[in-house]
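The protein record filed here.
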Amino acid sequence: MTALYVAVAKYLLSLAATLHQGLCRVRVTAHRAYFLNNPDQQLFITVTNLSPKREVEVVRVWIAGFPTIEVLSQPLPKRLKTDESWETWVSISILGAFDLPYAEVRARVRLSNGKEFRSIQNTRVAPVGYVPGAPHHK
């Protein structure tokens, strides 16, 4: 009978961990834009923590393609508080011709818990603005 209790307890703990993991919600969007005074178009990848009560930690950002391109313009890991956004970017010029038409949906993000997220195209971007989470120069 003790083995049954242990098995049930393990199952319930596993279920609780799965539910807790499910609370980890992140939105990843991507859009093309330019830095001021720079003619090179960039792919901006924005990560937003939508989890209601927990912080998340971004440990990897890449562009899925042939070959895979690591996005290293901002230091990682990056911890995001609830409702916090952070953005990184990569030059469009380093993407292959195959990846170019679909660049906005090829970005990937991995969190410290191993969960991965795919980007969607951000069509609601202001025509000019700041990069979330990046240092602002005066």
In short: The helical segments are 2-22.
